[in-house]
Amino acid sequence: MATIFTKIINGDIPCYKVAETDDFLAFLDINPNAKGHTLCIPKVEIDKVFDLDKESYKNLMEFSRTVAIAIQKSVPCKRVGMTVIGLEVPHAHVHLIPLNSMEDARFISKEKLTSGAFEATAKAISSHINF
Ligand code: 5GP
Question: Is 93 one of the catalytic residues?
Answer without folding.
Answer: yes
